[in-house]
Amino acid sequence: MANTHAIKARIKSVENIRQITKSMKMVAASKLRRVQTARGSLALMAEKSREILQELTAGEAAAENPFLAARPEVKQSCYVLFVGNRGLCGVYNSALLHFLETEMARGEGAGFVVICGSWGQDIIEPSGLNVRRRFADMSDVPDSKEARQLSDYLKKLYLAGEADRIVMVYQKYLSVLQQQPCAEIFLPLQPPEGEAKAERERIFEPDRKSVLDALTELYVSSTIFSAMLEARMGEHAARMCSMNAAADSTEELMGKLKQALNHARQAAITTEISEIVGGAQALSENNGRD
Amino acid sequence: MKDLLHLSIITAEGAAYDRMVGYVNIPTPTGSVGVLSGHAPMLCAVKKGLVRCGFGAGRGQSIRVGSGVANIDSNQVTILVSDASAETESPSASPAL
C-alpha cells in the first residue's frame, strides 16, 4: 500500500505542474498578442518616417547629421543585448548570449554591452563580458516611454564618442515556432532600404537640416522600440512553446504514473486474494484433521 | 469637403488623432505655422506644444504633442510626434470656418 500512496502523491504533484505550465502558456500567449498589437501600431509611424527619411537622406544635410554620418574608424562598439525578463523559454536567452559572444569576437575594435532585460544577472555579469549598464526594469509589454529611456541613453553614448557604432543583438521573430538571433547596426543610422525617392519641391520650416534632425530623433526611438517589441515577441513565443512542451510531457508522465498505480493496486489485490485463499486452505486442512 | 484637410497625428503607439479639419496650427521652433486647404507641400519640425485645429462653426480642438515633424502634402497633414494627447473639444479661438 505504501507504494500506491507514493504514486498517488507523485500524480498529484505532476497534475499541479501541468496546471502551472498550462497557465504560464496562456499568460505568454496573452502577452504575445499584446506585444503584436503594439508592433502593429508602431508600423504606421515606422512607415511614414521611413518614407520621409528616404527622401531627405539624399541631400547634403544627411552628411552633417550626427546619427547618419558614418565614423571613419570604429574604435569602440556598443552591443545592445535584448534578453528576456526571465527564463523558462527554452534556449532563447542562452542562444542569444552565445551569438553575442561570437559577434563580439569577430567585431571591429573593443566592445562593451548594454543589456535590456532582467534575465541572467548571475550569468552574464560574472562571465567576464564588459557590461556597461543593464536596463532591468523593462516590462513584458514595453511601451514607447521605456524605448525612449533606452534610446536617450544610447544616443548620449554615441554623441559623447563613447561608442562609434551601436549594434542591436536580439532574436528576430520569424514565427511563433521560430526566432533567429541577429545583429543589426543601430547607429550610425542605416538609410532605409528601397529606391531613393525623387527629390520634390517643398518648403522646409525652419530649414532642411532642422527637419532631418527632428526626424532622425524620432526614427532612432522607433527603431529601438521596434527591436524591443520584436525581442519580446520572440521571448513570449518561445515561452509559450516551452510551456506547451512541458504540459505535453506532464500528460505523458501522468499516463505512465497511472499505469504504475494500476499495476501496484492490482499487485496488492492479488496478494490479498492469495492470502485469503491460503488462509481458507489452511483452515479447511485444520478442520479435516479434527 | 474641398476646403478640408485630413489631419493625422501619429505616435509610436499608433494614430493618436485622425480627422477632417478646416484649419491646423502647428507649433514649430520658429513660431506657429497655420495650414489651410491648398497649402504648398511642406516639411516642418514640430516642437513640444499644442496643435490646434478648427472644424468650422467656431468649434475646434487642441492636441498636446511632443517634438517631431509634420508633412503637409495634397491637403493631407501628417504629424509624426513622440507623444500626443487630445484635449476636450471646445469653441475654437481660430477663425470660424
Return the CATH topology of the domain at 38-238 in chain A: Pyruvate Kinase, Chain: A, domain 1
Write down the overall geometry of chain B: globular
> What oligomeric state do these chains adopt?
heterodimer
Structural class from helices and strands of chain B?
mainly beta
List the total number of helices of chain B.
0
CATH homologous superfamily heading of the domain at 38-238 in chain A? ATP synthase, F1 complex, gamma subunit
The SSE string of chain B, one letter per element, is EEEEEEEEEEE
What are the secondary-structure elements of chain A, in order, as H or E? HHEHEEHEEEH
Number of helices of chain A: 5
Name of the CATH superfamily of chain B? F0F1 ATP synthase delta/epsilon subunit, N-terminal
Alpha-carbon Rg of chain B, integer: 12 Å
CATH 2nd-level architecture of chain B:
Sandwich
Could you give a short account of the major beta sheet of chain A? Answer: 5 strands, mixed
Beta fraction of the residues of chain B? over 45%
Structural class based on helices, strands and sheet pairing of chain A: alpha/beta
Helix content of chain A: 55-70%
Uncertain stretches of 5 or more adjacent residues of chain B: none
Rounded average pLDDT of chain B: 88
Top CATH class of chain B: Mainly Beta
Structure description:
The complex is a heterodimer of chains A (290) and B (97). Chain A has a domain at 38-238: ATP synthase, F1 complex, gamma subunit (Pyruvate Kinase, Chain: A, domain 1, 3-Layer(aba) Sandwich). Chain A has five helices and six strands. Chain A has helices spanning 2-56, 61-64, 92-106, 144-159, 208-289, and strands spanning 76-82, 110-116, 131-135, 165-173, 179-187, 203-205. Chain A has a five-stranded mixed β-sheet with strand order 3-2-1-4-5, sandwiched between helices. In chain A, α1 (2-56) runs antiparallel to α5 (208-289) and α4 crosses α5 (208-289). The two termini of chain A are 37 Å apart. Chain B has a single domain (5-88), classed as ATP Synthase, domain 1 (Sandwich), CATH 2.60.15. Chain B contains no helices and eleven strands. Chain B has strands spanning 5-11, 14-21, 23-28, 31-36, 42-46, 49-56, 59-65, 68-73, 76-81, 84-86, 90-91. In chain B, strands 3, 4, 6, 7, 10 and 11 form a six-stranded antiparallel β-sheet that branches. Chain B is globular, with a radius of gyration of 12 Å. β6 (203-205) of chain A pairs parallel with β5 of chain B.
